[in-house]
Each structure stands twice: as C-alpha cells, then as structure tokens.
Amino acid sequence: MPQSDSQPLLRARGVSKVFPGTIALDGVDFSLEAGEVHALLGENGAGKSTLIKCLTGAYRRDGGDILLHGEIIDPKCTIDAQGYGIGTVYQEVNLLPNLTVAENLSLGHQPTRFGMISTRAMNRGAREVLSQFGLDIDVSRSLESYSVAVQQVIAIARAVTLSGKVLILDEPTASLDSKEVELVFDVVRSLRQRGLGIVFISHFLDQIFEITDRVTVLRNGRLVGSETTSDIDRVRLVNLMLGRELEQEVRSHGKTHAAAGEPRLTFTGFGRKGRIEPFDLSIQPGEVVGVAGLLGSGRTETAEVMFGVAPHDSGEARRGDGTVLNLASPRDAIAAGFGFCPEDRKTDGVIADLTVRENIALALQARIGWMRRIPDREQRAMANDYIRKLDIRTPDAEKPVGLLSGGNQQKVMLARWLVTNPSFLILDEPTRGIDVGAHAEIIRLIEDLCKQGMSLLVISSELDELVAYSHRVIVVRDRHHVAELTGGDITTDNMVRAIAAPEREAIS
Amino acid sequence: MNARLLPLLATLVIFLVAYAVCYAQYPAMLSTRVIGNLLTDNAFLGIVAVGMTFVIISGGIDLSVGSVIAFAGVFIAVMLRDTSLHPLAVFSMLLLITTLFGASMGAIIHYLEMPPFIVTLAGMFLARGMAYVLSIDAVPITHEFYEYMQRLYWLMPGKGRLTLIGGLMLLVVIAGSILAHRTRFGMNVYAIGGGAQTAALMGVPLARTTMAIYALSGLLAGLAGIVFSIYTSAGYSLATVGVELDAIAAVVIGGTLLTGGSGFVAGTLIGVLIMGLIQTYIIFDGSLSSWWTKILIGMLLFAFIVLQKGLVWTTAKRRIAGG
C-alpha cells in the first residue's frame, strides 16, 4: 500500500473529551495503519471506550481532529462513521437475536424486487458473505440459535461489509472460550491480510501478544505509549498500563503484620466456577490485605464471591473461633459483619437521587430490618456525625448524593458501611475517579480504620497505593490467586512481575 | 425447525382440534355457512387485530383501537345523517383522521419517550370522548349505498356467504402478511421488537417506523370501524368497549410474543377464528352462558403465555449448550 507510508489509514490528533468533573480524554493521538491489528489498552476509566466513541461519532469530542486517509472527517453518529468506512463490534453482540442470520446481515439494505424483499437473494447474499469468513451455516435460522462466537463473527461480517476500511473490536473475546477465540482470531487475521485496519481492545495480555502488531496504552485519559508489540515485554506493558516506571521502590512504611495471632476470618478453598478459582485466605484483625491484578483478572470476582454477590460454590469461610459462616447472599454477608464498597459507584453503590442521610442509613436499616425504622432524628444525628468524621463536603445531610463530587460520594458509601460497624470491609477501587486531595483522605481513612482493629480487603490498580497501606498483597491473574507478598516484598516491581508472568506459576 | 413457528403451529392445532370437537357434536358446524358467518361476525375484530399484531411485534401496545372503532361508527353515522356526502367520501375522511390519530400517538411515544401503554390509554379516552361529543345516542345509518354493500356477497359452494366485510378482512390479513414478511418496513418492525437500541445502531429509522406502526394501527382501527358500521348499520359511542383487549388476546393466541420481536399475521387470523369458534359453539349449544367465551379465552391466553415462556427458556438453554 503505497499511500500508507505517508498517511496512516485512520488518525486521531489531540482528541479531547470532557465530562462534568473529569477529563476523560486529554489530547490523545492515535494512528492506525492499513493491514495492522492495533491493540488499545488501559485499565477501567483510562479512556479506551471514550476514544472509540469519539472515533465512531457516538460522542461529540471537545477537541482534536479525526483523519481518514489524511483527510479530516467528522462522523456525527455511528451510522455516519459506517459511511466513512469505520465499523464497530462490541462485546455484547449488537445484532437482533429474533431475526434470521441473513436478515441481520442485510437489515437496512435488503435486496428488493418491486418493493418486496427477495428472501432468496437475501439468503444467497448472506451465505456468500459468511463463506468469506469461513462460516457455513443455515442463514435462514434465527441468530439466537447460534453460539456467541458465531454471532460475534456474524457481527464482524456485517461491520466489514458495511464499512470495509476500519474495524473496531471492543472486547470481542470477553465472553468466549479459547476455542471460540481462535475462530474469531482466524477471521481477524484474514481481514488483516485484506488490508483492513483493526483496532483491538482486550484485557487479556496473551491475546494481545498473539494477535496484535502494535499496542497503544492509555492511562487516566492520556496516551502513555505506543509501540510495536514484538518490541515490548509483558512487564513493561503492565507497567505502562498501571503507570509505574521500572524502578525498584523501596518500601518505606515497613508495615508488618499488625497483631500476630488468631485470624479473624479464614477462607479455605473458597471460589466459584467461572468467576474465581478456589483460594485460601486468612485475615487478622487490624490487617489490610491488598489485591493487585489487571482488569478482568479476578480481583473484583474475589470480592464478589466473598460478599455473596456471586455466591461461592466451593470451600468454606470460618470465623476465628471456628464457626462456619453462611455467605450465600449479600444479606448473609452483612449479617456476618461484612461490608462491601463496589467498584462502580454510579451503578452499584450510592443511590444518586437519595439524600446523603438516606444513603448513609441504608445499610444499617437493611441490617436491623425494614420493620423497625430508624427515627429521622437518629438518622440525622448519624449522618451529621459521619459528615464531620469523614469530612464529607456537603452543605447539609439532605442534599442528593448525585450532586456531590466523586470523592465525597465515595465517602458517603464508606460512611454507609461504617455505621453498621463491620468487622471486615471490602473496598473495590476506593480511589478511582476522585481527585488527588480526596485520594489522600481515603488512604488516611483506610489506615485509621485498620488501627481501630477493622480488617480490610482493598482492591486497587494503583500499585503504589497498595504498597502504602497493605500488610499483605495478593496478586490475581487469570482468575487465580498467583502470589502473596508480605512485608518487605511488597514493592510495585514484585507486583508487576507477578501480574505479567506468562505462565501460571507461583512467584515466591 | 424454527422454534418461532411453534406457537403458530400450536394455534393451528388448537383451532383444528376445537373445530373437530365442535363437528363431532354438531356436524352442521362444518359447513361454509358457519364459516361464512364466522368471517362476517369477526371481520372488524380481525382487521383491528392485524394492526395490533404489528404494534405488539414492535414491542408496543395500542389500547385506543376499541374507542377508535366506536368513534368511527358515530362519525360515519352523524356525517351521513347531517350532510349529503357520499359514504365513500366520509370513509376517506375518517381513515385520514384515524391514521393521523395513530401517527400522532406514535410520535408522542417516540419523541417524548413515553410508554405506549400510557399514551394509547390517553388515546383511548380521547377517542371515546370524541365519540360522545358527536352523539350520545345511537345513530342509525340509512343510506342506499349501505344497503348495497350489505347485500354484496359471494356464494361459496355449500350456500355459505362470503360477505363484503368478511372478504375485506381476508384481504387485510393477506396484505398484512406481505407487509410484515416481505417489506423493509415489516423487517424494521421485527427489528425494533428485537431491541430498539440495537435496531437504531443498525440503521433502522426509529422515529419513522414507530409513527408508521401506530398510524397503521389507527388506519386499520378506522377500517374496522367502517366494517363495524356496515355490520350493525348504526353508530353508537358505547359500542366496542374492550375490543382492544379482544384484539390483544387474538394476537397472543395467534402466537405473537407479547414481549415483541416474533409473530405472524396469519396466526392472528387463526386467533380471531378460535375466539369466534368458541362463541359459535356456545350459540349452537344454546344452554351455555356467553361468559364461557371469556373463561375459555382467559384459559387459552394463560396457556399461550406459559408456552411462550417455555419457548424462551428452551432456546436460551439450547444456546448455552452450544447449539
């Protein structure tokens, strides 16, 4: 391709996008050549999907240009982008399960004769298209009668026939098993051969190294690196994603085990099929256990299994005195003295329309039962108490939580659990999406809580943060607990190495 | 075999079995006379149910159609009484009004993002109210053209009469089938029923299609109103109360998924005929209360909802198994 030497196929120049309160994309550059598979990597909130949505016109960008073959284009919606030749396939198959395969492929441009759809021609066309993708199936059956992998290939086929220059694959393999992944990869390889530019988003490192030619890493809305895949090693890639330079950080805090002795909780062989492999873990009073791992590695799954969101199907949990705990649902977990601040505040955490007071009272009310309502006066006293203690910046306790900043919402969620006085608190990404000042306060709070004797499990993708407050760090990869670091071994470097290790071997 | 054909087949089997049972008891029921009456008596319901089929396939509902039929009858009767317009001119005015009425409900549903249930409920009260405004009393229709239309029929073998309105219903069903299965509009209706968001991403014009669906339902409700006025020779604002529910029942018994996305216009015709057959049986029997119609239809509806749920489960399971 002679033109590709001078002009990349698709180029984003200084693209910015601002959401109220956060800068989702900050002047990001990105370029895609024809005939390459280009990985776009980053943790949650790094800006991957925002960039994709700007490229396909799903979002209006606030700054920057998009160039196709060197010419500025301005797609206003995904259909518009399709017209330019940019097609997208999402993790959730965006096709209609109730229509037949052929109807899905031809929706919007069916072959017609005298205004009537010619089903014969439509099915023939669909078979021809799919045969290019190595798929020989009955196209007159409804889409839902095929496996997700086949649906995914059909979605790719539709995107390619409609656009044909750039194909964006947004985590296309997330819900596929390894054999199905191969099916999709074969298709991707043949499209690369045909000269399409393919953007590939995935958080499976193995897949990145298997299929992509180049990687671009985003972090906190900024471009942190763009390199040829064969020139980069896993450790460096993980470092780019998690934002650490290769340097041996010496542990200055020197935290060791808080109180040696009886563990408060012991999980043995605890796990759930398809979510997290069985693991052993014991936690002592006043101990902070950090969990490190990449997105989708099983870190959140660990917390959800413990809290009964996705109840465990193997192993058991015991208290320090040996009594077995029933953790079949969040309700049981709350009754056992657990608390859980989930990762996504907006969808799983605070209820934006309720006031600060109501949000704080929620978990306690759930615990004592809905029949015994906590009097308003008591609720208000409780709320004011925690607004003061946690320094929640709100004019008063009656303000809807949705109007507060991210850090303050996080504190409200913490307060909600603190009023129930839990003995074991799980925090999933407590510092995500909040500003630097609030960041430090949350960390201070974690340290205070553990001084008071509470046991904490903290999941974070900020490795230096884990170094700062953890007594112990569990490293999770591919749904396995692969390593446990204690004392002086807790360094970002060791964590990165354990996360990046290609084989499932314990790092000691 | 396509699992989506199963409800249609079930409906067909139920209809044939029911007819066989009726025939065993009253051999006279298997005559073209009974069949002709079945078509004539249920012509207005069949026409309005075709429109309802499109609405339900798209995942919506139209509660206004019963009131629109009543409004249509009163409108025609009052216009023929008070003006010297020819019935055909009145018909075209009426169809224009009801089509626009449906289209504006579709526009409200789409642009204001209101649930169809609420919007068409308002439409139901509005249309009924308009009928009252025109006339509270029943208005008889006496026009020579009406008598001419009522006399029109085709004598089937066996002396059964396929009347004008019975034939019109069959034509509407055929036209509806072609529209649903062989046109882009029809495909878009199924697409919206499968998932409006996804359909929009795939380039289905949501606004236009939604408005067209409810406009079609309004048009067919108007046509059903004309047919009903020919059938009864009168317009009455209290007529056809609850017909929208009969239509919904016919559509569901006809194998259309209430959640949208799947169904057949031909199934709706069988649904209508099953309901008509139950009524005919009760008339033949002579001793049963007509409330048995409602009871049997209620039981049939339950059976079909359970059947549909079962189908959804089995297809979901098959897919997990890797089908």
Summarize the structure in words:
The complex is a heterodimer of chains A (508) and B (323). Chain A folds into four domains: 3-98 and 142-242, 3-Layer(aba) Sandwich (Rossmann fold), CATH 3.40.50; 99-141, no CATH class; 258-337 and 422-508, 3-Layer(aba) Sandwich (Rossmann fold), CATH 3.40.50.300; 352-421, no CATH class. Chain A is α/β, with parallel strands linked by helices. In chain A, 35% of the residues lie in helices and 24% in strands. Chain A has a six-stranded mixed sheet, sandwiched between helices. In chain A, strands 18-19-20-15-21-22 form a six-stranded mixed sheet, with helices on both faces. Chain A has a four-stranded antiparallel sheet with strand order 2-1-4-5, covered by helices on one side. Chain A is built from 18 helices and 22 strands. In chain A, helix 13 (356-368) packs parallel to helix 15. Chain B has one domain: ABC transporter involved in vitamin B12 uptake, BtuC (Orthogonal Bundle), CATH 1.10.3470. The interface between A and B is medium-sized, with 27 and 27 residues.
Helices and strands, with pairings:
The complex is a heterodimer of chains A (508) and B (323).
Chain A: H1 3-6, E1 10-19, E2 22-32, E3 37-41, H2 48-55, E4 63-68, E5 71-73, H3 78-84, E6 86-89, H4 101-106, E7 112-113, E8 116-117, H5 119-132, H6 148-162, E9 166-170, H7 178-193, E10 197-201, H8 205-211, E11 214-219, E12 222-228, H9 234-242, E13 265-272, E14 276-283, E15 288-292, H10 299-307, E16 314-319, E17 324-325, H11 330-335, E18 338-341, H12 345-349, H13 356-368, H14 376-389, H15 406-418, E19 424-428, H16 436-451, E20 455-459, H17 463-469, E21 472-477, E22 480-486, H18 492-500
Chain B: H1 5-25, H2 32-41, H3 43-57, H4 65-82, H5 87-111, H6 116-134, E1 139-140, H7 144-151, E2 153-155, E3 161-163, H8 164-182, H9 184-194, H10 196-201, H11 206-232, E4 234-235, H12 243-253, H13 265-285, H14 291-320
Antiparallel strand pairs in B: 1-4, 2-3
